[in-house]
């Protein structure tokens, strides 16, 4: 038992499990037909006999991703280190919330029940999820959540983003690029991602460095690619999605580059979106 285990009431007067809210894991394996990991709830649990997500009460010291992964590993043999989170979707009931962490696994892992709460665990094709006897709250949210079964790669036109700040970047281009890299890497979830359904995104970040900024190393949370020649050419080459469940977003204000990236299949947003993200804390915690 943790300090989050217990009943709580929302503003509508409904009782919910989780004194500090609850979190669940929507894990998928990508492909032409994605597979979803579902839990069959035991007869000793609320909604016994129905299928839903691994998850449960969030403790006071936990973030939603931490809570969802912990609960999933307590209720099944899932190794949380093999899960890559991509999105966080929040349902606020007023005074109580449920947060769904949407993530992927590189394979359909062998996952089995591990607690009295779990009667079974199965990988189900996404097209067949709605045909199951679903836990009612999950059934209500599945159609919306299904649209978030993808990951985002954000490609940053580093020189263009730096140039939109009047902070003296021209005096030390390499130092300014490194500061931007560190700021971007420190963002714990991005909001307002173009085309997103879920509220918070945990993307892969690729920063393209050119000119005097070349040679800086990547850090956890922000990769760096040196442009051997034109930065625009390198960015355009990185704009094309590399997998069926991947979408790429390029950050630039350059109109010609925008057109090239959109032709390659990427979405494009301006530097202000990224700079707002590094200046404003994410509401995920």
UniProtKB/TrEMBL annotation:
All copies of domain Nudix hydrolase, residue ranges: 18-151
Keyword Hydrolase: yes
Protein name: ADP-ribose pyrophosphatase YjhB (NUDIX family)
SUPFAM superfamilies: Nudix
Keywords: Hydrolase
InterPro entries documented for this protein: NUDIX_hydrolase-like_dom_sf, NUDIX_hydrolase_CS, NUDIX_hydrolase_dom
Positions of transmembrane segments: none
GO molecular function: hydrolase activity
Organism of provenance: Actinoallomurus bryophytorum
